[in-house]
Amino acid sequence: MNKLLILLFLSTFLFSCTEKTPFDKGELALKFETIDVEGNTQTIEKHTQKGKVVMLYFWADWCPTCKQEFPETQAYYEKLQKEGLEILAINVKQPKEASEKFKEQFGITFPMLLNEDGKISDKYQVEELPTNFFIDEEGKIIRKIVGWVSEKQVEIILKQQK
User: Fold this and answer.
1) Does residue 44 sit within a domain?
2) Considering only CA atoms, which of 135, 155, 100 is closest in space to residue 29?
3) Does 29 map to a domain?
4) What are the DSSP E strand ranges found in 75-121?
């Protein structure tokens, strides 16, 4: 009887560990609809259908890494946009004014999406900031990176998609 219980436990554990999550490489990115700070409707499909690699960049103004990273992110966005990079910055559970302030302070030219109710960040199970998801032109997840994303990392991801 003990052997049977052990076997049952092990098989349950092994099968639960191999289950795919919605954030595994190759899985479809979760759809959402929101507005940006200018009031334009934004969806993930709107950007992936352009044949670009989309970086969903979850951030907040109280995040020290986000504050340090924003100027660098804007710089490599300007450089790599012509290589097929699109960035959608999604503010996590903060008012529109926080996004407007960052947009102005750092001269941000990529879309700043609102997520005041937290539905998008909750859907993507964002627990740490910054959290970044890279999505290919078919709407599939390429990679998830928690923490600072460098220009070199983005260049490598773009080259891998060509």
Assistant:
1) yes
2) 135
3) yes
4) 85-91, 112-113
Return the pLDDT at 20.
46
CB 110 within 8 A of CB 85: no
Amino acid symbol at 33: E
Residues of the chain with pLDDT under 50: 4-20
Looking at the structure of the chain, the number of domains it has is 1
Those residues whose C-beta lies under 8 Å from the C-beta of residue 113, and which sit 6 or more positions away, are 34, 35, 36, 42, 88, 89, 90, 91, 99, 120
pLDDT at residue number 24: 75
Q: Which residue range is the domain that position 77 belongs to?
A: 22-160
Domain assignment present for 139: yes
Classify residue 43: in a domain, yes or no.
Answer: yes
pTM of the model: 0.85
CATH number of the domain at 121, please: 3.40.30.10
* Closest CA relative to residue 57, chosen from 162, 146, 157, 156: 146
